[in-house]
Amino acid sequence: MATQASNANRPRCLQTHLDIRVGTYEIDYAGHVSNQVYLRWCEDLRLQLLEENFPLQELMDSGFMPVLIASEIRYHRPVKLFDRPTGYMWIEKLSGIKMEFCGEFLVGDVLATSVKHTGLFVDTKTMKPTKLPPQIIKRFRDFEENGDKQNDRQCKQ
Fold first, then answer.
1. Is 1 contained in some domain?
2. What is the total count of domains within the chain?
């Protein structure tokens, strides 16, 4: 029985997506995408989300450097060589100085992999954790409280 993406149609804050072509060099000895490849795909999605909403250069010029502190990946079904997965990532929650990204990789409408990444920002001068950038807090709160129309459009893509 196929596993469906849970809550796939609910609005998600600043959701981005990426159509992925599986390369032959990403396949492991078992004939499916190697676990380490998902980490790279997630990094691509997180960077794309930031670039679309809070360009990394601007964040770093303002003294904020993103750092990933935890990753959780759940494999629901293997992704194989000729599959055409689409990856999705969004900001799920902010908590203190931490930021939680969630994502999923679907092949068609079947959930293949779900991910959760926790990150924070460090001050580029001290390299110590710092408060989240105010522009990220504002966009997340606007979405959470008001269903911000710009965010809402992006989240339904």
1. no
2. 1
Distance CA 17, CA 27 (A): 22
Q: Which long-range contacts (CB under 8 A, 24 or more apart) does 19-25 make?
A: 19/84, 19/86, 20/84, 20/85, 20/86, 20/87, 20/105, 21/84, 22/79, 22/80, 22/81, 22/82, 22/83, 22/84, 22/85, 24/81
Per-residue pLDDT tens over the stretch 11-39:
899 999 999 999 999 999 999 999 999 99
The CATH number covering residue 131 comes to 3.10.129.10
Q: Is 23 left (phi over 0), alpha (psi -120 to 50) or beta?
A: beta
Structural domain contains residue 7: no
**Residue range of the domain that includes 21:** 13-155
pTM, two decimal places: 0.85
In the block, tokens 């959930």 appear at 111
Inside any domain, residue 124: yes
Detail the DSSP E strand segments found in 76-134.
85-95, 98-107, 110-123, 129-130
